[in-house]
């Protein structure tokens, strides 16, 4: 799939893989492997941004994937996000869609919201939210209608 197809069709919370098409180098070639991993990986789709203009500057539409968290003792010190422009030449695929009945937790209402957690059900989302304290959080359940529309339109993974 192209970056356009991911932006237009993949639901927030999906696991998205990206690749430049090159084969993975053997583990013993650590530098080559690290370089390869910058153009090949996967992450959870947490945000879609439309194109926008600021004065003379025009920004292309994009989407952001949450790739990894690093920390210790249950404390996240570094969160790795990757943002891809729709102009990207990489190949993308939907590895997994959010399950029916799962609940998306967004950090705020509106178009600029970012997914901060995907819970398996509503009580789990409310419990997570009580521990993490997002004041303006919005909960959104993944419905059968949403998943069914993807299957009917030929977008199912």
Q: How confident is the prediction overall: mean pLDDT? A: 89
Q: Major sheet, described briefly?
A: 5 strands, antiparallel
Order of strands across the biggest sheet?
A: 6-5-2-1-7
Radius of gyration of CA atoms, rounded to a whole number: 17 Å
First CA to last CA: what distance?
11 Å
**How much of the sequence is in beta strands?**
35-45%
Architecture overview:
With 157 residues, the chain is α+β, with helices and mostly antiparallel strands. The chain has four helices and ten strands. The protein has a five-stranded antiparallel β-sheet. The radius of gyration is 17 Å and the shape is globular. 15% of the residues are buried.
Any descriptors?
157 residues; alpha+beta; 5-stranded antiparallel beta sheet; 3-stranded antiparallel beta sheet; 4 helices; 10 strands
Short description:
The chain has 157 residues and is an alpha+beta fold. The protein has 4 helices and 10 strands, in the order H-E-H-E-E-E-E-E-E-E-E-H-E-H.
